[in-house]
Amino acid sequence: MANKQTTWTTVSKRSPQNSTIKIGVSSCLLGHAVRFDGGDKRNSYITDTLRSCVEFVAVCPEVEMGLPVPREPVRLEGTPDEPRMVSVFSGTDWTVQMNRYARGRVRCDDIADLSGFILKSRSPSCGLERVKLYRARNRIREDGVGLFARALTERFPHLPVVEEHELAYPARRDRFLIRAAVYHRLQQLYRKRFSRREMLRFHSEHRHLVLEQSRARCRQLDRLSASIESMSASEFRDRYLALFMEGLA
After folding, report:
1. What DSSP assignment string belongs to 88-155?
2. Which own/partner contact pairs does 16-20 have at CB distance under 8 Å and 24+ positions apart?
3. Given its phi and psi angles, is residue 218 left (phi above 0), alpha (psi -120 to 50 degrees) or beta?
């Protein structure tokens, strides 16, 4: 069986020429001085290694929303279902502004063109999980989701998304890269006129990636592919994307 890095390389090389894999990334991870204290959270793997493989689209929700650098820090308060983004000292509530920004930002063309996203962990805007959530009497739970991260994953539920700390683990890092490369291949395929022959060829070339994770999910994909003649292009594409990406999750 090919190792993970070889698999990532093989999958990415199958993309059409001049077709670059684009990855969204929290701006602070690229070394941009956008944090509340005027600093950054530069990640050397992202800036020194991954940059040679992909094209980055940097996003800082708090700055793009209009907050200055430096600025008063914000935190999440309330419940997991209805968190509020509130300034730590003044109590200014930025929830409406951030939600409005996030919903609009994830509908922009440069976000729709992404094949993956690397988010800053624990951030009240970008954190994907375990973000501190302050309840009544300053009780803290770690089950919050950043407001931008929530909007992103709701808009693109199958987009490969990872927090930067996971890139320190080779298996998680390579799985993210494989998922991003496959997602990119499907994006390129879906932009063309629907061809059952090309879809079946894609399935034949890539089904082993799902098989490595789940035989049951691979059998589901096989059955779906066998029924391609009886389905509309949009129905098949939607179901195939969902099954394939869940199989790699």
Report:
1. TTT--B-HHHHHHHHHHHTTSHHHHT-SEEEE-TT-TTT--S-EEEE-GGG-EEEEE--HHHHHHHHH
2. 16/188, 19/184, 19/188, 20/54, 20/55
3. alpha
Q: List the one residue out of 200, 211, 165 whose CA is nearest residue 29.
A: 165
DSSP conformation class of 193: P
16 — pLDDT class (breaks 50, 70, 90)? low
Widest distance between CA atoms in the chain? 61
Predicted confidence band of residue 137 (pLDDT cuts 50, 70, 90): confident
| Peptide bond connecting 160 to the previous residue in cis, omega within 30 degrees of 0 | no
**pLDDT tens-digit profile of 39-51?**
999 999 999 999 9
Dihedral sign computed on CA atoms, order 204, 210, 214, 220: negative
- How many residues does the structure list for the chain? 249
Task: Give residue-wise pLDDT tens across range 76-98.
Answer: 999 999 999 999 999 999 999 99
The residues with which 93 forms a beta bridge, in sequence order, are: 86
